[in-house]
Amino acid sequence: MSSSQQAVLSVHELDCHYKGKQVLHSVSASFPPGQITVIAGRSGCGKTTLLRNALRLNEPSAGRIEVFGQDVTHLNQDELMDLRPRMGVLFQSGALIQSYTVAENVAVPLEQHTRMPLKLIERVVSRKLELVELAGSEHLMPSELSGGMRKRAALARTLALDPEIVFFDEPSAGLDPVTAAALDELIVSLSRKLNITVVIVTHELTSIKRIGDRMLFLDSGKAIFEGPLRDALKSELPPLQEFFRLSDPDQHVEESGS
Ligand SMILES: Nc1ncnc2c1ncn2[C@@H]1O[C@H](COP(=O)(O)OP(=O)(O)OP(=O)(O)O)[C@@H](O)[C@H]1O
Ligand SMILES: [Mg+2]
Predict the structure, then answer these.
(1) What's the confidence (pLDDT) of residue 2?
(2) Count of domains observed in the chain
(3) CA 55 – ligand 1 centroid, Å
(4) Helix 102-113 and helix 118-131: axis angle, to 10°?
(5) What pLDDT is attached to residue 163?
(6) 48: Cβ below 6 Å to ligand 1?
(7) What SS3 class is residue 43?
(8) Does residue 35 lie in a domain region?
């Protein structure tokens, strides 16, 4: 799966600067369909910046971004609107609108991007809530949900428009390990069931092993590894070895037989 033509998303020699400071250095990577790619690396290495560039929420200073085979590097925000429904995103805060019910929150993208009649919106919302195991929570307010339920409600909203690719930035942040594991499992099962390409930033090693098919590893804004997770775990690159060792100090990295 090396050809970027087959990739749902690819970035080519991407540079990004913030106020003159270079944060991404010629990052190239491609994200194959239906696979879950974990983006990892130390805090401040540019993971969130890369996601924001890929979504065109930040402007790269050089390089090219292709989504669904289309060069989106120079599309303006109006032109991007056509692609937005196909790209879902769940940022760390995953903020729900506090004054809206769960159902109203999930309905927001449907109201913004479609002309569905109300009855149909209600059916789609209920279906999305079932997918994230929140059936029957339509009328609850965000303040009545646990942290894990809030993430799942935000995920239902992300899935409202049936995106083909979904970006997650530290989705389990702030959750206890059991709730985080359940969210990981949900992300994997939805990706498989709905054939969604997933790009996920996480630094939790248990989470990485649970969900990742592939890894993109950033080191000071450079992509130093891209490939199957099992190869990353066996990599002899010092930054990767250090990352895995520090993330998992008590255990030897498993040798993957497959
Ligand atoms: N809006 C901004 N303005 C200026 N500098 C920024 C901005 N956002 C990020 N940076 C800087 O860019 C670098 C990369 O930040 P980024 O948020 O992409 O890192 P990250 O890998 O997501 O880190 P973390 O794991 O802590 O979330 C950091 O040095 C950060 O200080
Ligand atoms: Mg970040």
Answers:
(1) 47
(2) 1
(3) 16
(4) 120
(5) 96
(6) yes
(7) coil
(8) yes
